[in-house]
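Progress report, Aim 2. The chain analyzed during this reporting quarter is listed below.
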Amino acid sequence: MADFLTLSEIVKQARGNLDQGDWDYLVGGSDTESALRRNRAGVDAWVFKPRILRDVSDVKASTTLLGHPLRIPVVMPPIGSIQVFAQAGGAAVARAVQTFGVLQILSSVCDPDFESLAAEVPGPRIYQLYLTGDEAWMDNIIERAIAAGYSGFCLTADTQTYSRRERDIMKRYIPMSGRRAGSGDFIAQARMTWDTVAHIKEKFAIPLIIKGVACKEDARQCVEMGVDVVYVSNHGGRQLDHTRACIDVLPEVVDAVGGRVPVLVDGGFMRGADVVKALCLGADAVGMGRLEALAVAAGGEQTLVTALEILEHEIKTTMALAGAGTLEDLTPDLVTREQPLHPASVLSAFPLIDEGY
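Predicted C-alpha cells for the chain:
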C-alpha cells in the first residue's frame, strides 16, 4: 500500500513486511512485559475534559527544543537496531525528520555510524551514547560528536545491563544490542554514576540530555547538576519490568523540574491524542520510537514522513476538539484519569487491525 491515510494502515503493513523475529523484537518487552503493557494502559487511562466555545480555527502545534524548531512537539528517539527495519538505517530517519521538521536522536548502536550519518545528512540532531569504554573513550566520542555538528548529547541511564527479553530468548533471536551486551561491553554502563554527569557538564559545552528518568528525585538531581533536558523513559518497557507507566511518572517529574529545563517523555505513545495528553501533563515533547520503527518498516523514509504528517493531523484535530488553539492552552485541567476500556497491549492504539481492517 503506497497511499497510507491512517497510522493503522502503516502498522498493518509493517507487520506484513517483518519476519517473526524482527517483529517480536520491535513490539516486545522484558520478562513478563508488564512495564510494556502498563505504559499503554497509562496512556489509555488519561482522558480529556474538553472545553467548548473557544476559537480553534487556526491551531498551532509547533515548538522548539534546544533552540531548534519542531513542526510538532515530537522527537524520534534512539533505536539501536533501526537498520533492521530500514535498509538505510539511521540515515532514512535522518532524511525523513529533516523533510518533515522534527529532531532525531541517533543511537550509538546504529548504522551508519554517527560521523558518517552527519556527513551524509547534515543538520541538527542529538547523539545518544551507550558507554562501552572508559572516561577517555567517552570524552573522545563526545568531542567527535561536537566536531560532527551534533547539537545535543544524550546519555541513556536505564541500561545498566541488558535485560531479559523472553520473546527474543525463546526464539534465540539476538539483536545487535544484545550481542554487544553478551560480550560484556555494558560493564561501563553499569559503572556510570552522577560523577559521569558532573564530568560531562564540566568538560563539554554541548547540551546534555539524561534519558531514563523515572522518579522526581532523579529529575531534581538532574536539574541541580545542570542537565539541559530531562527525559522520562522506561526504555519502552524493555529494561526493568514492573515499572510505572511513563505518563504517570510525568507529572511528578514536571513538578520537580519546575520549568527550569525541558522535559521529554516516551513509553506507549502511538497516536496524536497520546501526544496531546503528555503535553497537557507538562511534557515539552514526546518520543515515539515504536511508531518510528513501524513506519520505516512499512515503507522506509517516505512512509515515516507520511506517518508524521498523519500524526500532525491527529494532534491538531485533538487540540481543536479539546478546545486548545495553542500548546500553551494544553494544561492539566484538560485531562483526568478514568478506567481504561480495554486490556492494554503494545498495539492497542490500533484496534481496527484486530477487527480485520
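The domain at 7-339 is CATH 3.20.20.70 (TIM Barrel). The first strand starts at residue 46 and ends at 48. These observations will guide the mutagenesis work planned for the next reporting period.
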